[in-house]
Structure formats: C-alpha cells, structure tokens
Amino acid sequence: MRAWLAVLTGTLLLVLGAPGCSDDNPHGPNGGGDAGVPGHPDGGTPPEDGGTSSDFACNVARQEGCENGQSCHFADLSEGRTGSQCFAAACDVVRQNCAQGQRCTYVSAGGVTERRCVEAGAATEGTRCTLAPTDAGIEFDTCAAGLFCKDERLGDGGTGFFCRRLCHATPQCGASGECNTVLRLPGTPELPLLCGPRSPPCDPFAQGCAAPLSCYPSASGPVCAGRGTRQTGDTCDFSNQCAPGSTCVNTGQGLRCQPLCRPSGTPACAVGTCRPLNDNPGVGACVP
Question: Where is this region: Disordered (predicted)?
Fold first, then answer.
C-alpha cells in the first residue's frame, strides 16, 4: 500500500478561554513524504469561544457527532483546508471490530483505499513490516490488528517501515507516545492518525526550538512544531500555519492567526483583548 505522511508538521488547533479566566513517504510499504502531527491531542475539537468552525463536523478524539456505522476522521477539504468529517466504513481501525482473527485496516484496490476487515498480520508494534502477499488485487500491510506500516528515516539516512499504533486520541497510545502523526493515503479523503514521539515542550515567548521548528501553544501545552508564515488576521486551520509568535483561534469571524500575549504581564496586546488559551497557563491570544 502506498502511503505518505501529510505535510502538517505540528498542526495545532486551539480553544480560547473566557476573558480573564484560566480555563484551562516514499511512505508506505512501497512508496514515499514528510512527517506531520496534528498537535491537538483532543483530536481537533471545534473552538468553544462562542463560535464553531464548520470545517470540523465531528470530534475525532471523542468520536462524537457521527451516526451509527460512521467514524470521525480528519479530512482534506476544498481550497487546501483541513477539517473533520464522518465516514461510513465496514469497520473502525482503532476499535478493531472485525471477526476474530481479522483486523480492520486501510486496503487499496483499483485506486481506491477503504477500511476493510482482512486477515490479521503477524508483525507487532515497532517491528518491521511490508505488503502482505495476496492474489486478489488488493494491497494491505503485514502488521497485527490496530497497527499500520509507516515509513521512518533511519540513522544511516535510509528508510525503514515499521508497525505503529493507529489512534483517535493520545490516551489510546499508552507508552507509544502521542496521537500526533497524520497519514495521507491515496484513494481516500480520510487522514488517519498514528501514535508518534511526544512533542518537546517549549516557551512560546522565548522561541527556543531548534530550526526549522517554532514554539506553538497546543491542548497539551506549548510544543515545538513546524513553523508557518500566515500573518495576523489571515485565515487558518491549525496554529502552526501561523507565523511564530501567533496562533490560530476563533475570533468570532472564523479561525484567524492572532498574536500571542500574556493575560497578566508582557507581551500585551497592541490591539484587542488578551484572552487565555485552554491548557496553556500564562499564554493567551489577542482577539479583536
């Protein structure tokens, strides 16, 4: 199965607290891309500051907002946007609700990729994997139930493929890290998530991350993530689409890049009110 990682490195979606409060790749077994993480461990919850983003139709982490037989996944939308949508499929890659001896995974056939129940592989988490031998014109990997074969850069500069855990939210990863790695698979709009290394913490006002990363607030506190270039007032879907020193929040007129500030202290807002960001003590965003 050919898969590659989405260029969404460190993607973060944030929620504003109330004013004055502290509310807190080649890329699959036969193909190749760039690492990416949706840094909101809550799975992309729509903003809760008096407005919602219509791009996020359901809650990925809580698997809420979908009908029976559907599951919520991040998805590519029109005009380069990213959101979440409900998708119907034969099974769920995290719940693993297939018959005994089978696994739910992404299967490719005839240019279409979909979730199906297939024979479970034997490769365990963290071990090497490849495509499973089949004679039915379909492609899926050799990982065990709940895992997916992902490309990783090796110390010698080469590429290896290893089984990593599929997830909807970080608690499902356990000791495997955070639910922060996005896969973009050809033939499906779904952007499934995998458990990846924990994001390093940082100070969003000091910007001490090693290049090419910058520090952005996230729902688990500030983390180092790939830096963006969008300026104050520009539309956004994730915080690290914004330039360092700013973040993506709901301003009441949709999701926009806004400067970071301290609710009590400096830097203060040149324009607007400094509203605290959930789960980021001492960090806020300037909202008109």
Answer: 24-54
Distance CA 281, CA 247 (A): 15
Exposure b/e, 92-131, CB count within 10 A at least 16 = b: bbbebebeeebbbbbbbbeeebbbbbbebbebeeeeebeb
| Residue 186 CB-density burial (10 A; 0-12 exposed, 13-18 middle, 19+ buried) | middle
Q: What is the pTM of this model?
A: 0.67
Supply the pLDDT for residue 271: 92
Amino acid identity, residue 272?
A: G
The CA distances from residue 21 to 24, 122, 231, 240, 282, in Å, are: 8, 50, 26, 24, 11
CA atoms within 13 A on the CB side of 33: 23
Residue 183 and residue 191: Cα distance in Å, rounded?
6
Helix, strand, or coil here: 176? helix
Residue 72 pLDDT: 92
